[in-house]
From TrEMBL:
Signal peptide annotation: none
InterPro entries: Aldolase_TIM (IPR013785), Indole-3-glycerol_P_synth (IPR045186), Indole-3-glycerol_P_synth_dom (IPR013798), Indole-3-GlycerolPSynthase_CS (IPR001468), RibuloseP-bd_barrel (IPR011060)
PROSITE patterns tied to this protein: IGPS (PS00614)
GO biological process terms on file: L-tryptophan biosynthetic process
Organism: Raphidocelis subcapitata
Keyword Protein transport: no
EC identifiers of the protein: 4.1.1.48
Positions of the UniProt region annotated as Disordered: 1-27, 52-72
Keywords from the named record: Amino-acid biosynthesis, Aromatic amino acid biosynthesis, Decarboxylase, Lyase, Tryptophan biosynthesis
Protein known as: indole-3-glycerol-phosphate synthase
Gene Ontology MF term list: indole-3-glycerol-phosphate synthase activity; phosphoribosylanthranilate isomerase activity
Gene3D superfamilies per UniProt: Aldolase class I
């Protein structure tokens, strides 16, 4: 009798929903959420890694005793397809040199002794609440592959102090030496100078060694690039960073990459950045931020309350207003600030702040 009664009640519910022999339709918000979820899953399939981590047929030059032996006749696909791939391939050689100088075990010991980190996300939230603007991550940067030397009179501590005085929430410090003329020493110098802004290590991370090196050098956050790292590696580096008290800025260039990154467990505790620079051509399209933020993956990121960061191509107050209107809570700006004679004034002008 109970079974029959239950079946009768179910049939009444179904008829009231306008269906016979089918479950009641979910409410409109639930249907919309389901559509977004399905679209995000579909986009994730197109967001796989686009940067090869190493030459597919091995390095062209091989050590042979005191000499280097060059392999000839390798096909064209053994050359880097863009500057990011070239940077990533060189990192393997660079890390080998670092590891010879300071073994991983020794680096782990130094990381354990490092002082506590500063809260990178909280600094952005506090500054944004105070100004009504996106929290600024101002970049300490001497050069870039596309522009060459941006600031010939480069003093990392002087620039960092000026950014802080102007109203930056956090700082990004380029550590790549070969392509950006940066250094992990710049992180150490800025931290030792007493700058209070939390520091992002802007390094092209492909191994855990670099994460520990960033922490030892004074970083409070690290950069991870989705075009370079599959989700398995991203998850691992996120775990390592979290264990060291750091957060990650995970950078995406496409809706597909954002959709893939959103599948990572605990990604809400970190930051997601949208880089408006095309990896192949290095051209910048500020409208990319809006397109990705308006996509199903972007809407899902906003629904989860993830702190989104706009990167590249931000030069004016109008640019700031544009990306803020698209939904980002922070911006990362380098070139337009670091090349100025007075970076503090540049920060205030960019954010439309009073002196």
């Amino acid at each position: 009798m109970q079974s029959l009664a239950a079946g009768s009640q179910s049939a009444v519910v179904q008829r009231r929903a306008g269906f016979r022999g089918q479950a009641a339709r979910p409410a409109a918000p639930a249907r919309r959420s389901m559509r977004i979820s399905c679209a995000v899953e579909a986009a994730a399939d197109a967001g796989e890694v686009s940067i090869r981590r190493r030459p597919p047929r091995g390095n062209e030059t091989q050590p042979c005793g005191p000499f280097d032996y060059k392999v000839r006749g390798l096909p064209d696909d053994n050359q880097p397809r863009n500057i990011l791939e070239e940077i990533v391939w060189y990192k393997a050689k660079e890390i080998d040199v670092w590891r010879e100088r300071v073994p991983l075990a020794a680096l782990l010991g130094l990381a354990k002794k490092a002082p506590p980190t500063s809260d990178f996300k909280a600094a952005i939230a506090a500054k944004s609440a105070a100004t009504g603007k996106p929290g600024l991550i101002a970049e300490v940067k001497k050069a870039s592959p596309s522009k060459g030397v941006i600031q010939p009179d480069f003093d990392p501590v002087k620039i960092a102090r000026a950014y802080e005085a102007g109203g930056a929430a956090c700082l990004s410090v380029l550590t790549d030496e070969k392509f950006f003329q940066g250094s992990f020493d710049n992180l150490k110098l800025i931290k030792a100078a007493g700058v209070k802004c939390p520091l992002l290590c802007k390094e092209f991370i492909v191994e855990a060694y670099q994460v520990f090196k960033a922490r030892v050098s004074g970083a409070d956050a690290i950069l991870l690039i989705a075009a370079v790292l599959p989700n398995q590696d991203l998850a691992y580096f996120m775990k390592v960073a979290t264990s060291l008290g750091m957060v990650c800025l995970i950078e995406v260039h496409t809706e597909g990459e954002l959709a893939r990154v959103l599948q990572l467990e605990g990604v809400e505790q970190h930051l997601l950045g949208i880089n408006n620079r095309d990896l192949g051509t290095f051209k910048v399209d500020l409208a990319l931020t809006r397109r990705i933020m308006d996509s199903p993956a972007g809407l899902e990121a906003q629904r989860r309350g993830i702190l989104m960061v706009g990167e590249s191509g931000i030069f004016t107050p109008d640019d700031v207003a544009f990306v803020q209107g698209a939904g980002v809570g922070a911006i990362l700006v380098g070139e337009s600030l670091v090349k100025q004679g007075d970076p503090a004034a540049g920060v205030r002008q960019l954010l439309s702040l009073d002196a």
